[in-house]
Amino acid sequence: MAVRFKICVDSTDPHLLANFWAEAMGYVVEDHSAFIEILHRQGAIGEDDFIEVDGRKAFKTAAAIRDPDDPMDPQSGVGRGARILFQVVPEKKTVKNRLHLDLHYGADCFEAAAARLEDLGATRLSAHDEQGSKWVVMADPEGNEFCAHA
């Protein structure tokens, strides 16, 4: 049986990164407000555990994005397919990633996609054209490297 997984990204501002990556990938930011209400009513979390983001309750130290076409749990707002979770850690990124995402936009639009990502807050680090492949190495608003591929 295959194992379900999510990719977790350490961050200092999970909501900033969730919004960036949702836009970059055509994903949606998960809405956990109903789940937060349930947990709060049960006493499992307190007022200090959530904040308001874009007019809804959100976990203070985490935000997630999901593929809008994948199923999700209506009670928790958690996706049941491809997801990325951004979680708060106390330190900022200091070294190169050991894992990164490659976003495949296609040969006709990867340069335009890279420019759009810059408009969203990414930084262009380098461009490559090697062995029949073209890509741009970029960094998200917190410096996490990723590639925009042809």
Describe the structure.
This protein has 150 residues and is of the alpha+beta class. The chain has 3 helices and 10 strands. The protein has helices at residues 14-25, 33-41, 110-120, and strands at 7-11, 28-29, 50-53, 56-59, 62-66, 83-88, 101-104, 123-130, 133-139, 145-149. The strands form 3 sheets. The chain has a 4-stranded mixed beta sheet, with helices on one face. Strands 7-10-9-8 form a 4-stranded mixed beta sheet, with helices on one face. A two-stranded antiparallel sheet has the order 3-4. A hairpin with a 2-residue loop joins β8 and β9. The two termini are 33 Å apart.
Mean pLDDT: 93
Number of strands: 10
Q: What is the count of helical runs?
A: 3
Q: Estimate the global geometry from the Cα principal axes.
A: elongated
Oligomer category: single chain
The helicity comes to 10-25%
Largest sheet: 4 strands, mixed
Distance between the termini: 33 Å
Q: Order of strands across the widest beta sheet?
A: 1-6-5-2
- Unreliably modeled segments: none
Radius of gyration: 17 Å
Order of helices and strands: EHEHEEEEEHEEE
Question: Which class do the helix and strand fractions yield?
Answer: alpha+beta
Proportion of residues in β-strands: 25-35%
Key terms for this structure?
alpha+beta; 150 residues; 3 helices; 33% strand; elongated; four-stranded mixed β-sheet; 10 strands; single chain
Please give a quick description of this structure.
This protein has 150 residues and is α+β, with helices and mostly antiparallel strands. The chain is 21% helix and 33% strand.
